[in-house]
Design goal:
Elements: H1 9-12, E1 22-24, H2 41-46, H3 48-59, H4 63-81, H5 85-103, E2 108-110, E3 129-131, E4 135-139, E5 142-147, E6 150-151, E7 160-161, H6 163-173, E8 178-181, H7 188-191, E9 192-193, E10 198-199, H8 204-213, E11 217-220, E12 230-233, E13 236-240, H9 244-247
Parallel strand pairs: 1-2, 2-3, 5-8, 6-7, 8-11, 11-13
Antiparallel strand pairs: 4-5, 9-10, 12-13
Helix pairs in contact: 3-4, 6-8
C-alpha cells in the first residue's frame, strides 16, 4: 500500500517487491514539494525563489494572496512563451506520469489523489494496472472498494469534487472488506497535519460508511504528517498508509 507518491518513481519501482499486489491511493504528481522547494512542476517553471514565496503564503493561509501571486506568474509565462497554463501543466504532468506508471509492478490497483489528473491516466496505465474510482475488486479473496480524489478546498487542486458526488461514490461501494480512499474519514486526529499545522479535509460520508458497513480496514493517505497514523473506529482499523514521497516505504497488509 502506498499513497502520496509525489514523483518518487525510484522507490515506487521497488515498492511491490515480494508482494502479491501493489495498491496505490493516489497523488502521483509532484507540483510543489513543501520540504524541498526546488522539486516539482512549480519551481521548474518559475524558479525556487518564487516557490519559497508561494509556500510561505499558503503556510500562512493567505490563499487569496497566493492565488493572485500565482496568476501573475502564469500570465507572465503565457506572454513569454505564447502557450497556455493548461498546456504547460499537462506537458509536465505527462512527463511525470510516464515515469511513474512505468514503475508500477503487475498487478497494481490504483485510484486518484486530489492532485492527479484522471483524464490522463488511460494514456499511461498499462494492462497490469487496474484504475478504480467508486468501484470494487476482489484481491486474494477480499473485496476492496476504491474512491479517489478529494473534497473542495481553498487550494483548488485538480481533482476535487463536491461532497454529494463524493458521498455517492462511497455509497456505490456497499459493503467491502477493505475500504481504500485517498482522503481520510472526518476524524480530527486523522485529518490534522502536525507540520503544516492545519486540518486537511476528511469525508463525513466516508466516516458514516465505516460506521455503517464495518470494513476490516479503511486505508488512506493525503495527510502527510498526521497527528494519528492509525486508530480504530468501531470494528474498523483506520490506517494512514504513509507519505511515500518522503518515506519510500510501503505499508503492508497481510492475510
Amino acid at each position: 500500500m502506498v499513497s502520496d507518491v509525489h514523483g518518487n518513481s525510484a522507490d515506487l519501482g521497488k515498492a511491490g517487491a515480494g508482494a502479491d499486489a501493489l495498491v496505490c491511493l493516489g497523488d502521483l504528481v509532484l507540483f510543489l514539494d513543501y520540504a524541498d522547494h526546488s522539486r516539482g512542476i512549480f519551481p521548474d517553471l518559475f524558479g525556487v525563489e518564487n516557490a519559497h514565496h508561494i509556500v510561505a503564503l499558503r503556510t500562512a493561509r493567505h490563499f487569496d494572496e497566493a492565488r493572485d501571486f500565482g496568476r501573475a506568474l502564469w500570465a507572465d509565462l503565457e506572454e513569454r512563451t505564447g502557450g497556455s497554463r493548461e498546456q504547460a501543466i499537462e506537458t509536465a504532468v505527462r512527463g511525470q506520469y510516464a515515469e511513474l506508471f512505468a514503475a508500477f509492478p503487475t498487478p497494481t490497483y490504483a485510484t486518484y489523489g486530489n492532485v492527479d489528473i484522471p483524464a490522463l491516466w488511460p494514456d499511461y496505465a498499462g494492462p497490469g494496472t487496474t484504475v478504480l474510482d467508486g468501484e470494487r475488486v476482489e484481491i486474494g479473496g477480499r473485496v476492496f472498494g476504491f474512491v479517489g480524489g478529494g473534497l473542495r478546498t481553498p487550494m483548488r487542486t485538480p481533482y476535487e469534487i463536491d461532497d454529494d458526488a463524493y458521498a455517492a461514490k462511497i455509497a456505490a461501494l456497499g459493503e467491502v472488506d477493505v475500504l481504500c480512499t485517498h482522503i481520510p474519514p472526518d476524524v480530527p486526529e486523522l485529518c490534522y497535519d502536525t507540520v503544516a499545522r492545519r486540518f486537511e479535509r476528511g469525508s463525513s460520508a466516508l466516516l458514516e460508511a465505516i460506521r455503517a458497513t464495518r470494513p476490516a480496514y479503511a486505508l488512506f493517505g493525503h495527510v502527510h504528517q498526521p497527528l494519528a497514523r492509525r486508530m480504530r473506529v468501531g470494528a474498523t482499523e483506520c490506517v494512514n498508509v504513509g507519505h511515500f514521497a518522503s518515506s519510500g516505504t510501503p505499508w503492508v497488509l497481510e492475510w
